[in-house]
Amino acid sequence: MSRLKSATLVAILTTLSACASIMPQPVNVGDTATEVITKRGQPSHRVKDASGEILEYATGPWGQRTYMAKLDASGRVTSFQQVLTNEVFATIKEGQANKDSVLRTIGHPSETSYLSLRDLEVWSYPYKESGVWNSMMHVHFDRAGIVRQMMNGPDPRYDPDKRFPFGMFLR
Q1: Where is the secretion signal located (predicted)?
Q2: Are residues 30 and 77 part of one domain?
Q3: Domain of 110?
Q4: Which has the higher per-residue pLDDT, 159 or 98?
Q5: Is 10 within a domain?
Q6: Does residue 130 lie within any of the structural domains?
């Protein structure tokens, strides 16, 4: 094998091994909270749940992924999943869900805002819609903390026309 091919192969293998070493270890059903923290680090949030506790891990580019480790009363994992998905968003029911249930379902928002004309608080969650599109889900709450509307659309942070100062040169 030529030196160039050998050097290329070594570079590829080194890169792959570096990637593998920074990949978090998998969390398994039955793991203890201590094992989850050892594998994933300290959670970004901890939420009490009727059946135990939820360890929230907000991660990814601009927070497009949030993993939830649901623990039972004995502190063992009952489920571990990425929750910023179309399927999980669909479980939040307008007129029924409230702030607490949203926190337990999809975690803490990346940002909050307020729509004064409609008197609604908005929690925003960046995510990869269908695993492809850079999107933002907006959950709207009334004053009582009940979900009144959910809207998604393109994540404006990825719109080159909105990124100053370069956007003005792309027209």
Answers
A1: 1-20
A2: yes
A3: 85-156
A4: 98
A5: no
A6: yes
